[in-house]
Specification:
This protein has 111 residues and is an all-alpha fold. It is built from four helices and no strands.
Length: 111
């Protein structure tokens, strides 16, 4: 959101150096939330009169915890017969052996 850690702490934003955004969606949500916070924030310089500014009470920026609806689908024979573990194991083995197979092909072309 364009804030340094030190400055963020001075304007009331808690900063935990141990945490970081793991997904781009989460990062974008945090940036939007902090940008909205900065837009509502009133910063007074030393000596400014604070009587003209209204004090807010209660929840200022509620966090939306709603989750998207779960989409159900029919279980087909194709889904029942699909072996996920076997597919992953075969794919892992194929990627391991791919370099060796390419080397063997190159050797055969040279001969």
């Amino acid at each position: 959101a364009g804030l340094s850690r030190k400055y963020a702490q001075t304007i009331g934003i808690a900063v935990d150096h141990r945490r970081s955004s793991k997904t781009q969606e989460g990062f974008d949500l945090n940036v939007a939330r902090l940008t909205a916070y900065k837009a509502n924030l009133v910063i007074l310089k030393k000596g400014d009169d604070a009587s003209a500014v209204a004090q807010f009470k209660g929840t200022i920026q509620p966090i939306d915890h709603s989750k998207p609806a779960i989409e159900m689908q029919e279980v087909t024979d194709e889904l029942k017969n699909f072996k996920a573990y076997t597919t992953m194991r075969v794919a892992r083995q194929e990627t391991r052996v791919a370099g060796y197979r390419i080397a063997v092909e190159n050797r055969k072309k040279k001969e």
